[in-house]
Amino acid sequence: MKHYHVIGEDAPNIDGFAKVTGQAIYTFDMTLPGMLHGKILRSPHSHARIISIDTSKAESLPGVKAVITAMETGERRQGAWRRYPELCDEPVLCLEKVRYIGDPVAAVAAIDEDIALEALDLIEVEYEPLPAVFDPMEAIKEGAPQLHDDVENNINLTRHIEWGDVDKGFEEADFIREDEFILPAQSHVPLETHGSLASFDGGNNRLTLWTSTQTPYYVQCLLATAMNLRENGVKVIKPHCGSGFGGKNELFADQFCAGYLARKTGRPVKIVYSREEEFTCARRRTPIHYYLKIGAKRDGTFVAKEARAFSDGGAYTSMGATLLYLTGWFSAFPYRYPNYRYDGYKVFTNKSPSSSMRGYGGIQANFCGESQIEMLAADMGIDPVEIRKKNAMYPNYEVPGQATIASCGLPEGLEKIGEYIKERGNLPKDHGIGLACYGFNSGGIFNWFNTPYAFSGAEVRINIDGMVDVYSLAADVGQGADTTMCMIAAEELGVHLSDIRMHSGDTSICPSDLGAWASRETLMMGNAVKMAAADAKRQLFEIAASKMGANIVYDLEAGDRRIYLRDRPERGLSYYDVVRDAIRAKEGSLIVGRGHYTPHGKGMISPAFSFGVQAVEVEVDRETGYVKILNVFTAHDSGQVINPVAIRGQVEGSIMMSAGYGYSEEMLYDGGKVLNPNLVDYSLIGYRDMPSAVTVDCPTYEPEGPFGAKEVGEGITCPTAGALANAIYHAVGVRITDPPLTPEKILMALKEKSA
Amino acid sequence: MKRELKITVNGDLYDLYVEPGTLLVEVLRDKLGLTGTKRGCDSMSCGACTVILDGKAVKSCTILALQANGKEVTTVEGLANGSKLHPIQQSFIDHWAFQCGFCTSGQIMAAKALLDENPNPTRKEIKYAMNGHLCRCTGYNMIIEAILDAANRIQEEAK
Amino acid sequence: MASDFEYFNPGTLDEALNLLSRYGKESKVLAGGQSLLLLMRRKLVAPQYLIDIKGISSLDYIKVNESGDLSIGALTPHRSVELSRKIQQKFSILSEMEQDLAAVENRNWGSIGGNLCHADPAGDPSPVLVALNARLKIASVRGERNVEVEYFARDRFKVDLAHDEILTEIQVPCPALRTGSRYRKFSRMEGGFAIASVAMSITLNAESDICDDVRIVLGAVSVSSRRAREAEKVLIGKEITDELLSEAGDIASEEVDPIDDMRASAAYRRELIRVLVRRVGKEALLRAGNDSWKGISFKDTGRAALLGRR
Ligand code: FES
Ligand code: FES
């Protein structure tokens, strides 16, 4: 294996000092001189026609500087699916109708927050309530209330995926199972809520927006459209961001309301979501009614699978369109199904839009799929590890007509899990170990945003003292993307991490990038940064080669701040000397390297896939249903590891989120009203609930990734919930198909079983 | 009507006038510009706003500023000595004990109060003492390891 | 937060009582404020006068008198109760309860009296204090009165306090010899709020293992802590066995009329009560059995008196 100088070793977060001293500035912390505070008026109805809006009282409240309604924002609708304008169906501010409790209707800017809130109470909106529908299975029925005039039966979208001959496959099966599952909503709960600060330059008709986002470029484009500005009339800056998890991938009301209000008042305007708004008016993980059918041969070989999904899409398309495809794709993951068929329906309901969230579409598919495989194995009397080994994807496997899996560490992962289970031996009473395998995209290929730019672009500049400036719009939202990019640049240029300075998060100085979603940054931006660094390095090598006068057949290499002959490393030059000479040779201009990455020849899904398998051990209290999650053992393949400690951080954070999905987190509704929009009644896994976790690496080399790297952070979110369900089954013999698997559900199932 | 508030923050005495409804966190963040202290909830449940008040960790989002009149507050900005980090801060960096960092100030202040009281805590004691702090990014274990390590470092330094 | 109230921070109880008698109905008493400020922020409460008693240091104390009776000033922080040696030694159930009450930060700032006055049905101190047969001292300019903790909470978030009154002290009698008590709550998340809780105190006869006295208190299942009196009858006057505890659990789960809310269904709460009564009973019994004169290392005249009688 190649020896690296920087990657593969733990590196501290480049923002560490700022974050532990409180100096890191988030949008939440920002103020500008003369700044106003904005608040958003939201619909109290699940579904209603707006008869009239009267803002006059609010406007005359002292301290109020502006009120906006759809009178200003017009009929314009927004959405991220730019390739399909009909899917951009979300009003900027609601004009005729509101479709969920929390739909934005108006916004106010005032000299302080209390006045802004008071003004909201003074806006008089007359509504005519309409019948509403909350369950996708009800919403598709004939005669159900219709959310959008042009969308019959509330069927927003359908997706179909098929390969092989599914019916024939089932005919050949010796065992068949059919099961249904109901998957819940989950809230992203970023610790920093959505928030924005807008400042408008009326002279040049340009807006600057500081905002808590994962996708500065989307916000730039979508906001420009929403405000009728030219694309680069909007500059988006992402300061430090208090995490996103998929919930900050689109244009949100804080962003366009702050923008409009700043333009209207001529003063900076800041809007921050309250925690309650975060729960009720932002996005949520998509609930799905899932139907699954699987067929296997006597020896455990899968021969066919069929999946049907009805998603509770909420009131607008949002990014939920992508979910509909992804969950179908992941339902065939990470196993070899010769015959597969999926039909998905995204259904409008009078709830907040369900959208992207870490483990997007995968966690739902994984929970159902891994539960069902475990049930099938039990029916057939096959060991859970063996049935998975028999069917797991392997390197260079081709998903019929869809994609080629290049690197794949799943077979090795299953070996490791098998050993781990053997080692654990006989478990104490009421303990159980459950398994789940997973795999995930390293970025998406389908260009639904219709970007004309490369998916990721980067620039590298080398200064006279050897300091390297890296420009990347990869959105570091905590996962450590900036550190990763610095490591990649340092490795490629053969310098130290301390020689790199990162410039990220500003759309006006960084080449475009699509943002931090679909686990795309390490692979896509990683490739772009590596290419930019290589471009700069090539320029250094030109100078170094001529100075060293080495035989033309020798290759140069850079490492540890030296440029040297690969086969005679003792012959070389100092990196700093080469930089100085190179700049002189270029008539004093900086060394600039450019890089970009767009996947080509990789199909329409993803350039590479991460894999892994996880074992969760629980202890169940049979009398109360209480589950103690004891330990989580994961064998993970994310290709060549760039920063091991960051990977561990991703794994552990994913376990916390996925265990929450499986056990404790639940958005409770009364109709369209969220009953628990706060962190008292919405239960996150805490310190005392968190299991210990051990992760082993199954290293592979991904040919498409930078230095062979691929994603971590989303795939790993998929397995814990399903593995937990399987563990509970093995501990006490009950099977629950509608997470979260609360103690109450477990106890009731135990009672039913013993009755 | 505004009332006088005399408060010592990170060793500096401030003489302010505040509305009685002003929260301690609002004084720290909005009046004194100490934005290291965060707010993550409206319900006293996340711990992001934790500061040390007269030696004890408290949640500054549910304390009236006037209730801290005459008292001493330490915020995350008060831990480092110039550019030299407090051992807890250094351990947080070394153990990748934060990601987005939004919960981090609160976690660090709680860890500080814990180690002041119990210089050699067990893993379990840390879990109990820190349980009021939510973190959506890290899964907690790496924070626990950072605190265990910080305890060692502090004891080493004291030697 | 809007500040359309007048703020007072009296330094003595008398001052506070005078203010209250003056402003009565339009005022609210703020102890730590951890509950009240949340309500005010959500505009569920909007007092004209806020009387902040947090600074009355004379109400922050923990005392044990010569007969072994405990008294706790109403403004004593939870954390002091948790860490008090005196309490850990003789009223360990109280400090155990405190260890699992919210977060350290909340316990540092909030007081045990403030918690009782908030009367959250899921509150932890109330069932424990009922099990300990505690009484409360309440003061106003009109004088002082006492009320048993059991009857203090009237409904959810409603207590037996007139507008001019302040809770000043919690009085816990010295437990009789051979008394064991235990509290457990069931929460969805560790250390979280209770979905159901049980506090139990069992006193065994000095000479036999007959149960002389028992208090079974159910928390978080009704609008306020309730004794399961029918279940108590199962145990009184008998030698407690596993079977009897199971029976007591069954009866308790039948006599309770649990609330049904988003945290748990009534049916599930019943099941929890059934299990908790049995489990907590067993632990309390064990403690009662182990509670003997020998184990006590400090001077305890209260018990000595009891022993003398024996
Ligand atoms: S902001 Fe204070 S606890 Fe969440
Ligand atoms: S580091 Fe993001 S919430 Fe803790």
| Spatial ordering of strands, largest sheet of chain B | 2-1-5-3-4
Question: For the report, how would you describe the main beta sheet of chain C?
Answer: 5 strands, antiparallel
- The number of helical runs of chain B is 5
Would you give the CATH topology of the largest domain in chain C?
A: Enolase-like, domain 1
Largest sheet of chain B: 5 strands, mixed
The count of β-strands of chain B is 5
Query: Which segments of chain B are poorly predicted (pLDDT under 50) over 5 or more consecutive residues?
Result: none
Q: Look at the structure and give the mean pLDDT of chain C.
A: 92
H/E order of the elements of chain B? EEHEEEHHHH
Strand percentage of chain C: 15-25%
Helix content of chain C: 25-40%
How many discrete structural domains of chain B? Answer: 2
Total helical segments of chain C? 13
Biggest sheet: strand arrangement of chain C:
4-5-10-6-7
User: Can you give the mean pLDDT of chain B?
Assistant: 97
CATH class of the largest domain in chain B: Alpha Beta
Number of domains of chain C: 3
How would you describe this structure to a colleague?
- The complex is a heterotrimer of chains A (755), B (159) and C (310).
- Chain A folds into 3 domains: 16-23 and 455-597, Aldehyde oxidase/xanthine dehydrogenase, molybdopterin binding domain (Aldehyde Oxidoreductase, domain 4); 31-130 and 191-242 and 248-281, Alpha-Beta Complex (Aldehyde Oxidoreductase, domain 3), CATH 3.90.1170; 284-446 and 603-754, Aldehyde Oxidoreductase, domain 4, CATH 3.30.365.
- By secondary structure, chain A is of the alpha+beta class.
- In chain A, the strands form 10 sheets. Chain A has a 7-stranded mixed sheet with strand order 3-7-1-14-11-12-13, sandwiched between helices. A 5-stranded mixed sheet of chain A has the order 9-18-17-16-10, with helices on both faces.
- The model of chain A has no long low-confidence stretch (mean pLDDT 97).
- The longest helix of chain A is centred in the last third of the chain and has 28 residues, at 521-548.
- Helix content of chain A is 29%, strand content 26%.
- By secondary structure, chain B is α+β, with helices and mostly antiparallel strands.
- Chain B is built from 5 helices and 5 strands; from the N terminus they run E-E-H-E-E-E-H-H-H-H.
- Chain B has helices at 24-31, 87-94, 104-117, 123-130, 141-158, and strands at 3-9, 12-18, 50-53, 56-59, 72-74.
- In chain B, helix 2 (87-94) packs across helix 5 (141-158).
- The mean pLDDT of chain B is 97.
- Chain C has 310 residues and is α+β, with helices and mostly antiparallel strands.
- Chain C has 3 domains: 6-52, 2-Layer Sandwich (Uridine Diphospho-n-acetylenolpyruvylglucosamine Reductase, domain 2); 57-172, Uridine Diphospho-n-acetylenolpyruvylglucosamine Reductase, domain 3 (2-Layer Sandwich); 179-308, CO dehydrogenase flavoprotein, C-terminal domain (Enolase-like, domain 1, 2-Layer Sandwich), CATH 3.30.390.
- Helices cover 37% and strands 23% of the residues of chain C.
- In chain C, the strands form 4 sheets. Chain C has a 5-stranded antiparallel sheet with strand order 4-5-10-6-7.
- Mean pLDDT of chain C is 92; it is low at 293-310.
- The interface between A and B is large, with 56 and 53 residues.
- Bound molecules: FE2/S2 (inorganic) cluster (2 copies).
- One FE2/S2 (inorganic) cluster (FES) is lined by residues 39-41, 44-49, 59, 61 of chain B.
